[in-house]
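Narrative of accomplishments. A recurring question from our advisory board has been how the design workflow behaves on a single, concrete structure rather than in aggregate. To address it, we present the structure tokens for one chain from the evaluation set, followed by the sequence designed for it. No filtering or post-editing was applied between the two.
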């Protein structure tokens, strides 16, 4: 009986020594895992990516300039990014009709066409890479944001609802509704069951410009 009890005492002693030596290591390992999880959580909370999803009203608030603009020329050679020159046809925010503005940076805008633009002003002027006389020179510049979805093409389209052809054809604005959310009162065409890439659909121009007028003058 004494031999058995002695063996138990020895085993308990060895167990205590093992726990004593392993406890700091276990604690360090647990602390490292905890810190790693904390860093991952912090990274996730501060990461901001585009494109974002905006309601039209929030997009309007986020922009410094909102206007219907006719593109009169463009320069993809003399600057670090594409720069377009446009004339303001109708202003909703931050500029006046007839003003010449410069904006970018995305390629693919059609010269001579009209776009509804939501722009953010860039604090520093943009300077050409060279002294070429073909450039616009050093200019104040505004930026299309939300990965280009704040630039909306306008065009005459025959995709709208109506019993007659005359009702189906109208001036429209192309809104990518996967990223720019419209009020329920403004329908977009084609309907949702016909799902184009990025949800880019057409909205009647008069309805969309009326919405922008309301956002610009909420007290009216």
């Amino acid at each position: 009986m004494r031999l058995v009890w002695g063996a138990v005492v020895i085993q308990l002693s060895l167990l205590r020594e093992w726990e004593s030596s392993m406890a700091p290591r276990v604690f360090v390992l647990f602390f490292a895992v905890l810190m790693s999880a904390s860093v991952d959580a912090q990274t996730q909370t501060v990461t901001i990516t585009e494109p974002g999803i905006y309601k039209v009203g929030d997009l309007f608030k986020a922009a410094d300039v909102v206007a219907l603009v006719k593109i009169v020329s463009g320069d993809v050679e003399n600057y670090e990014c594409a720069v377009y020159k446009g004339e303001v046809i109708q202003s909703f925010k931050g500029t006046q009709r007839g003003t010449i503005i410069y904006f970018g940076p995305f390629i693919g805008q059609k010269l001579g066409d009209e776009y509804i633009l939501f722009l953010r002003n860039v604090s520093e002027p943009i300077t050409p890479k060279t002294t070429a006389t073909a450039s616009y020179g050093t200019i104040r510049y505004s930026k299309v944001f939300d990965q280009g979805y704040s630039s909306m093409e306008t065009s005459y389209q025959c995709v709208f609802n109506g019993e007659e052809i005359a009702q189906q054809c109208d001036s429209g604005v192309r809104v990518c509704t996967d990223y720019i959310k419209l009020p329920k009162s403004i329908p977009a065409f084609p309907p949702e069951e016909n799902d184009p890439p990025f949800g880019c659909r057409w909205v009647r121009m008069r309805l969309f410009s009326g919405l922008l007028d309301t956002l610009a003058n909420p007290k009216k």
